Amino acid sequence: MILTICRAWLLEMTAAFLFLVLPSISQAVPVDAPLADPALEARARALHKVIRCLVCQNQSIDDSNADLARDLRVVVRQRISLGGSDQEVLNYLVDRYGDWVLLNPPFNIRTLALWLGPVAILLLGGTVAVVVFRQQRSTHESKPEPLTAKEQARLNALLDNDRDAI
After folding, report:
1. Which of 72, 102, 107, 165 gives the lowest tally of CB atoms within 10 Å of its CB?
2. Alpha-carbon span 37 to 144, nearest angstrom
3. Residue 9: which region, alpha, beta or left (left: phi > 0; alpha: psi -120 to 50)?
4. Model pLDDT for residues 53-67, shown as the tens digit of each residue
5. Structural domain total, the chain
6. Rounded distance, CA 166 to CA 160, Å?
7. Would you tell me how many other CB atoms lie within 10 Å of the CB of residue 144?
8. Between 67-81 and 86-97, two packed helices, what is the crossing angle to 10 degrees?
9. How far is the C-alpha of 88 from the C-alpha of 135, rounded, in Å?
10. Containing domain of residue 52, as a range?
């Protein structure tokens, strides 16, 4: 009987351990294998900081834990280990993903909207605000039309009634 209780307890503890440990193992992010040469690894890490994670979009692949970011880090290390210069590695990625892959895209005809879009929106918004404020000011500053004789008589009657009530 004691042996049965011990087996049941051991089985329950094993199941509890597996339920607690396995989910954390399944979410572990594999660590990238650094390059053997420290100088090449430093170049790779510098490039990782200027390449955008295409999943996170506002992080570099150096900061991101996304699978695609890890894959891009591997590609960068492979290209560097094959003897590619930093610019060649960046050109390789831009050819495949476009200028969007760079955290600081170049100013050219393809990225014109990206660079000038915020300025254009700001100018358009400022223009609309100025027009609206001028219209509001002109309507508030204009003098009201004088009362007609009938309206003036009605006003005087209302005012007389108020004075009598006091």
Report:
1. 165
2. 83
3. alpha
4. 988 878 899 888 888
5. 2
6. 10
7. 5
8. 140
9. 56
10. 29-106
Number of helices (H) and strands (E) in the chain: give both, helices first.
Answer: 6, 0
Residue 119 and residue 100 share a domain: no
Residue 106 one-letter amino acid:
P
Q: Name the token pair of 131.
A: 């027009």
Q: Please give the mean pLDDT across all residues of the chain.
A: 83
| C-alpha torsion 35→39→44→45, nearest 10 | 100
29's tokens: 């992010």
Amino acid at 15: A
Q: Which residues pair with 102 in a beta bridge?
A: 51
Prediction pTM value = 0.55
Distance CA 94, CA 79 (A): 14
Hunting for tokens 């760079």 — which residue is that? 102
Contact by Cβ (8 Å): 73, 61: yes
Instruction: Say if 40 falls within a structural domain.
Output: yes
d(CA 63, CA 79): 20
